Amino acid sequence: MPSPFSAFFRQLDSAYRDQTYFLGMKARLLAVFDLLFLVFVPLNIAKILLLQPPSIGLRIGLNLCFALAAVLSLREARAGRLERAGNVLVLVALAPIHLLAFFIPASQPVGAAIQLFITDLVLLLFALIFASRGVAFVALAVIVASHVFFHLHALDTRPILGSLEFAADTILHEGLITFGFVFCLGLMLVTMIEAAHRRSEEALRETRLLNENLERLVAERTRELEAATRRANEASRVKGEFLANMSHEIRTPLNGIIAIADLLQHRADLPSDAASQARLIAESGELLMRLIGDVLDLSKIEASQLELEVQPFDLATLAADCTGLLQPRAAQGNVTLLTELAPGLASHYEGDGFRLRQILLNLLSNGIKFTPPGGSVRLVISPGDGGIRFEVRDTGIGMDESTCRRLFQRFSQADSSTTRRYGGTGLGLAISYHIVELMGGRLEVQSEPDHGSTFFFTIPLRAIAVAPAVSSAPADARLDLHVLVAEDNAINRRVIATQLEKLGCRCTMAVDGGEVLAILQGRPPLPDVILMDCDMPNLDGWEAARRIRAWTADPAASALQRRAAALPIVALTAATLPEERARCFEAGMNDYLAKPIKLAGLRRVLESAVPRS
């Protein structure tokens, strides 16, 4: 950290030396946000001057209000008045914004409403975390009143047509609900944190008393500590269950946000700055969706809800799939990706192939990420002590011993610069570590700075004998089948068509489930097999499969429909979770082919779906 910042934070720490650790860290956090505001404002003003949007003076004035709020807040925080610093930040930023908001030009009221909504949401969170309770309630009242007035003043009085009218109403109604929900949830969380802080301080005082009277109170205090441990474990379990449930609940509105942002991006009449904002909303939503997936996996582990699904799997195929998925990324970074399978390994084993694939993909992906161009990443599988040993070796940047010790903790990376340079949340290795433990092994690492890293684990896998597939045709024989392909992605349709042509098949293409139904109800001949993408617009693959199977029991179905109802249907999907596979079979599909589709896998499912005489 540069010396001016070091001196500032030393002075800040000195102002809170006599306060609790919690308040000191809270003051540091507020100071960091204030400094970020001061960095953001000149950058944003430069952007405004460069792009020349409407109302330049108004926009610059709003940014200067943020800068003034940050400066005043820093001054109060450095003087040791933390709550007052939070109050100043919120009030000085909030008041001018809502006074100037009434002068928003009429040309873009919806865009202004969206920007006002996002700004108010951020300020409301700051009020809950850093300001007093009274100021937080005042901030909520001002925000709600301002949004209602802005809607009546800037939106209802100006003609807004089409989906923008719906967006304007949504910003008012759902926006007010969102403010209330965020305020209540934030207030509860802050109250819980403060209660936990008070409890920790009380526990610290009790510990000091315990040290002074250790011999006399050891038995009594030991019982109290045991009870506190049970309460803490119960609280941890409840927290994990809460997080798992909330992750599911968050996905519903998040999917709506992403979908609406995507619709806005496709509007030809959308201003360029609003289109850029919609693109940022969509990209941020996708990133948050992936992060929620990682957090959900971790919460399932902590709540003991993650279960392994034991099934036979082909070890060599699993390894080839892992390296095949990451080969384009490795090639892009000029990293060599290799696989080594030791002699003596069985072809098939019994275990959770999906979770093993998840672990290997994470380790290989990390190896590629942290290996410079010209390096290599190698997956080595060999017989081990009590099972099968998996190693991922890379020639990357390596780590020191202290970093290795904390590597498998949640949200942990080598240091903060690692996150800035390489990205990532630090959840992948923690999840992989716990899954390996569930499988009966232990994920470990050996590494030295600038000499690469080796991640390895050994898990017990039972070798099984699998009868070889009986085929009447050699591996390169033409299948001579007519295949109906339902796929909404144009690039995927071209790839599948090329693969089917190589297998000697004819194909008919459909872009959604509705087109599949139309083709099957048209003129004969019917196809021999249907390859059905699951996630398609209009009518998805699951519903299309259900409707096709329903023709069997429909008395009004034609003879052609009844023959079509007996056709084999193979699901095509990029999702490989066990529950996704179960959903395909429940819809009436016969088999399952995960993307990316390889020629051997495509041949296998086609030969299995349409046996040769």
Notes on the structure:
The strands form three sheets. A five-stranded mixed beta sheet has the order 2-4-5-7-6, with helices on one face. A five-stranded parallel beta sheet has the order 10-9-11-12-13, with helices on both faces. Strands 1-3-8 form a three-stranded antiparallel beta sheet. The protein contains 20 helices and 13 strands. A hairpin with a 2-residue loop joins strand 4 (376-384) and strand 5. It has helices at 3-15, 21-51, 56-78, 82-100, 109-130, 133-155, 163-212, 214-265, 272-302, 315-332, 353-369, 401-406, 416-422, 428-438, 490-502, 513-520, 541-550, 559-565, 578-586, 599-609, and strands spanning 311-314, 336-341, 348-351, 376-384, 387-394, 444-447, 453-459, 462-464, 482-486, 506-510, 529-533, 569-573, 591-594.
Spell out the key features of this protein.
613 residues, alpha/beta, single chain, five-stranded mixed beta sheet
If you compute it from the alpha carbons, what radius of gyration comes out, rounded to the nearest whole angstrom?
30 Å
Mean pLDDT: 79
Proportion of residues in helical segments: 55-70%
Distance between the termini: 74 Å
Shape: globular
Tell me the major beta sheet: 5 strands, mixed
Number of helices: 20
Strand order of the largest sheet: 2-4-5-7-6
Low-confidence stretches: 413-423
How many strands?
Answer: 13
Work out the strand percent: 5-15%
* Helix/strand structural class: alpha/beta
Topology:
Blueprint: H1 3-15, H2 21-51, H3 56-78, H4 82-100, H5 109-130, H6 133-155, H7 163-212, H8 214-265, H9 272-302, E1 311-314, H10 315-332, E2 336-341, E3 348-351, H11 353-369, E4 376-384, E5 387-394, H12 401-406, H13 416-422, H14 428-438, E6 444-447, E7 453-459, E8 462-464, E9 482-486, H15 490-502, E10 506-510, H16 513-520, E11 529-533, H17 541-550, H18 559-565, E12 569-573, H19 578-586, E13 591-594, H20 599-609
Parallel strand pairs: 2-4, 9-10, 9-11, 11-12, 12-13
Antiparallel strand pairs: 1-3, 3-8, 4-5, 5-7, 6-7
Helix pairs in contact: 2-3, 2-4, 3-4, 4-5, 4-6, 5-6, 5-7, 6-7, 7-8, 8-9, 9-14, 10-11, 11-14, 16-17
